[in-house]
TrEMBL record:
Organism field: Thamnidium elegans
Family indicated by similarity: Belongs to the class-V pyridoxal-phosphate-dependent aminotransferase family. SerC subfamily.
Name under which the protein is recorded: Phosphoserine aminotransferase
Amino acid sequence: MSTYALNFGAGPAKIPQAVLLKAQKEFLNVHGTGMSVMELSHRSKPFGAILEKTKKDLTELMKIPSNYTILFMQGGATTEFASVFYNLVATKQQELKQAGKEGEEIVVDYLVTGAWSSKAAQEAERLIPTVIGNPVRVNRAVNVKQSNGKFGVIPPASEWKLTDAKKHNVAYVYYCDNETVHGVEFQSIPQIDASVPLVTDVSSNFLSRPIDVSKFGIVYGGAQKNLGPAGVTIVVVRNDLLVDLNVGPIRPLMLDFKTAADNDSMYNTPPTFAIYMVGLTLEWLKEQGGLDGIQKANNRKSEKLYKVIDDSKIYTSPVAKDCRSHMNVVFNLTTEELEKEFLKGAEEKNMHQLKGHRSVGGVRASIYNALPEEDLTTPFPYFFSCKRDDFM
Ligand code: PLP
């Protein structure tokens, strides 16, 4: 077995080799403490320094404005489906109360463009009965599941059915910037009414390109694709959206953003090792030229793969050209049998974790920040050499 695998996994995913080597070097003795980072108290000085540096580097890379707070949350990105709903409905309830509009309906808008935004909308719907005092409605302003159950397009904004914030109480507009399962990515930030907080799940394209944080109420993502190991979810939240725990729906303490903010993400024990690894990844990212630098590399990598797919007679992309993901390149071969052959051949050529998500099948090459450009060309230019004859 080779000691270096060409890892196209969707997540947990490849971590930059340099980051792993640094972590390995420091494994038993981090920052001269004589202890592993896993053995340090989260309230110790050395861990405090790691947390601060991680926040500083993230602020620098994302150019996070000073009226935002970085939170390190737990429970994966899935937990944020509930947290976003609870916290932003709470903010809206507070606002309505102050405006003497108690009891009015609250609407939450979702742009459903793939599996993850669909799940987030379902979770919001499921939690509606827990809100006391105001009826809440989920509006799927975009809902593009095709008759075969697949996603693959983002309709033009003129076709979105966003709720009119002048006439209704819209708590937020939610979308998933990059749909990991279906390989669908927004190419720009949706334009919405500026008075409504915009929320985005960037779990699978976090820090893959520059982002204008000031356009958002909340930007969040799990770490295990572009930022490190599973176990920590980063939430960047605008401070005016943080409300007291006793306002709005009763919610578990661990889902409450203000509790996390007031305690510097240490209301309980945070996932210290995962945060440390995120910190090392951010340092690496700065060395790659920050978000501008990594975006250029990501564009080159994805263009290369899509060109192979579009030029070929055996590969097809199920995703419209104007919304193809730079991170998760999803494609099919002409028959399921050929797909099996392709995946078998790939494994033999040291290319791993290429199988499409179990709900959609096909092939998915996840080419996150950490995947070096050389891994798409050497030593096995499999994508480039595969001809139909290879499978006959
Ligand atoms: N959102 C997106 C875009 C994802 O890709 C995933 C996981 O793959 C999730 C949410 C759920 O993340 P988790 O498994 O950390 O809850």
